[in-house]
């Protein structure tokens, strides 16, 4: 049987994800962040965003949860990750997460510096990317 080898860990992660080999029960927030980081290491932002969004929708559907995909959360985190990656483009995963541990937290993570729960709970925000609203003092 032919076994493919990969040049990078990111390539292997993306291949496994696209093939559906990542067990749904173990694909949590930090796993989403790592996968998004891998896509952003591989492609420019717009291409990575389109591919990751498509593949994440496919992954959710394959695991019987097509309604879990959230366009605003996905795009906002991709933007946050890309912005942080720009500070040290050559950083490997461990160095990146060491410098940005807040990205791995969901409940009190950086997304909520930009979005109120009421926006993220809106069904429209699941379907399309919603720009962050200014926080009122």
Write up this protein:
With 137 residues, the chain is an all-alpha fold. The chain has one domain. The chain is built from seven helices and no strands. It has helices at 9-18, 29-42, 45-62, 71-87, 93-99, 117-120, 123-127. The radius of gyration is 15 Å and the shape is globular. The N and C termini lie far apart (62 Å). The mean pLDDT is 89.
How would you summarize the topology of this molecule?
Blueprint: H1 9-18, H2 29-42, H3 45-62, H4 71-87, H5 93-99, H6 117-120, H7 123-127
Helix pairs in contact: 1-2, 2-3, 2-4
Write a brief caption for the model:
The protein has 137 residues and is an all-alpha fold.
User: Main sheet?
Assistant: none
Name the helicity range. Answer: 40-55%
Shape: globular
Mean pLDDT: 89
Based on helices, strands and strand pairing, what is the structural class? mainly alpha
Number of strands: 0
Element-by-element helix/strand order: HHHHHHH
Distance between the termini: 62 Å
Total DSSP helices: 7
Taking Cα atoms only, what radius of gyration do you get, to the nearest Å?
15 Å
Spans of at least 5 consecutive residues with low confidence: none
- Domain module count: 1
What's the quaternary structure here? single chain
Beta-strand level of the residues, as a percent range?
Answer: under 5%
Question: What characteristics describe this protein?
Answer:
single chain, 137 residues, mainly alpha, 0% strand
């Amino acid at each position: 049987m032919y076994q493919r080898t990969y040049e990078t860990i990111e390539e292997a992660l993306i291949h496994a994800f696209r093939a559906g080999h990542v067990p749904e029960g173990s694909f949590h927030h930090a796993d989403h962040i790592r996968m998004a980081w891998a896509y952003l290491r591989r492609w420019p932002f717009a291409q990575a965003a389109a591919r990751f969004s498509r593949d994440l929708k496919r992954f959710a559907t394959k695991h019987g949860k097509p309604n879990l995909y959230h366009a605003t959360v996905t795009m906002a985190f991709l933007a946050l990750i890309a912005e942080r990656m720009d500070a040290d483009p050559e950083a490997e995963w461990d160095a990146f997460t060491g410098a940005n541990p807040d990205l791995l937290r969901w409940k009190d993570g950086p997304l909520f510096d930009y979005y109120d729960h009421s926006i993220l709970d809106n069904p429209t925000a699941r379907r399309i990317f919603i720009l962050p609203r200014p926080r009122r003092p």
